[in-house]
Design brief:
195 residues; tt1808, chain A; globular
């Protein structure tokens, strides 16, 4: 079977200015990101995805009440601030984004959270490109909740655009999230969202 041209179509490279103009004019039902200079369309989350993000938010706020997990917060990421991403969750102290516009600096962000989607781009986008963008932005911790593999992967210690530490856990494990987050996730509930 011959692959279709759509499977191998090159992604258009945009400048940050072009991207921001496009993102401002996109309908509310479309979420756009700029990862490594390439335009990305973020899929709409399903119900389990939403429940997992709320689960992370509750765990964080119960253990560190001064923290908030902001959904879909626009961040400038990547080397030389050349990317724009909307993590599923951005953990920061309360009021961190007060006065910011649509795209915020990654300064004082404690952790980003991504929950994989069930689409063909999730491997490249969620498991690789966005993770590397968060590391390049020196975000101290990145949490990937990988629904395909029923794992949580904690990345920490960003250095030279990569996370030096990577630790994977299965659903049901107790997951220590290192500083500056300093919480422990009880992941038993995630089994309810396994498909």
């Amino acid at each position: 079977m011959t692959p279709s041209t759509a499977d191998h179509a090159p992604r258009a490279q945009l400048s940050v200015e072009e991207f921001e103009q496009l993102a401002r004019s996109a309908p509310e039902t479309v979420t756009l990101e700029l990862i490594n200079g390439m335009l990305e369309v973020k899929p709409l989350p399903d119900g389990d995805h939403d429940e997992i993000i709320m689960w992370v938010a509750m765990q964080c706020m119960q253990q560190q009440p001064e923290l908030r997990l902001y959904r879909e917060r626009g961040l400038r990421i990547g080397g030389y601030r050349n990317g724009r991403a909307r993590p599923d969750g951005t953990l920061a102290r309360a009021s961190r984004f007060a006065g910011d516009g649509e795209w915020s600096s990654p300064d004082h962000i404690l952790m980003t959270v991504e929950v994989t989607s069930h689409d063909h781009d999730t491997d490249r986008r969620d498991r690789t490109e966005k993770r590397d963008g968060y590391a390049a932005a020196s975000i101290p911790v990145h949490l990937l909740i990988d629904r395909d593999h029923e794992t949580l992967v904690v990345y920490s210690e960003p250095e030279k655009g990569r996370y030096r530490q990577r630790t994977a856990y299965g659903y049901g494990d107790t997951v220590p999230v290192p500083g500056p987050v300093d919480i422990t996730l009880d992941t038993e509930e995630l089994k309810d969202y396994a498909r």
